Every structure is written in C-alpha cells, then in structure tokens.
C-alpha cells in the first residue's frame, strides 16, 4: 500500500486529529488512527469525480494529446 507524504497546516491537522479522537471515543470509529478516515475521504472524492478518470483515459489513449472541453455557446 502506498505511503504518501503530504503537507497539512498544523492547525488543520490538530483539529482533524481532535475530531478523529472524539469520534473514536464515541464509538463512531474503530480506532483513533487517521488513515482509515483519510482513505474514506479519498474514496468519496474519487467517486464524486469519476468523470475525470474517463478524461485521464482519453489523455493516455490519445498518446498525450490533450482532451478538450466541449465548446460552449457565448
């Protein structure tokens, strides 16, 4: 499994960890480990943006050619 390193503002991480801790204490999470929470957030993000995966395939199959957005009427 990948182990990415990301930069997060200290105050955001502190708030995130506090929320994870409280949810674990309330029994809403199985552990106070932030990894499962971040994984779920990433899954939701990917699911909500699946159309971009299709665009990615267009880029790759097009040998690097840019897939353009449809023209809009002005």
Helix fraction by DSSP (H/I, runs of at least 4): 55-70%
Largest sheet, strands/sense/barrel: none
Strand residues, percent: under 5%
Average predicted confidence as pLDDT: 87
The tally of helices reads 3
Query: Which value, in Å, is the CA radius of gyration?
Result: 19 Å
Structural class: mainly alpha
Shape: elongated
In sequence order, what are the helices and strands, one letter per element? HHH
Instruction: State the distance separating the first and last CA atoms.
Output: 47 Å
Number of strands: 0
Stretches with pLDDT under 50, minimum 5 residues: none
InterPro entries: Arc_rbn_hlx_hlx (IPR013321), Ribbon_hlx_hlx (IPR010985)
Protein name: CopG family ribbon-helix-helix protein
Organism: Natrinema soli
């Amino acid at each position: 499994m990948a182990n990415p390193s990301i930069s997060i503002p200290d105050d955001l991480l502190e708030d995130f960890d506090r929320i994870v801790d409280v949810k674990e204490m309330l029994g809403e999470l199985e552990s106070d480990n932030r990894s499962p929470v971040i994984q779920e957030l990433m899954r939701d993000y990917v699911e909500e943006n699946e159309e971009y995966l299709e665009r990615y395939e267009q880029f790759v199959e097009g040998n690097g050619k840019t897939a353009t957005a449809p023209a809009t009427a002005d």
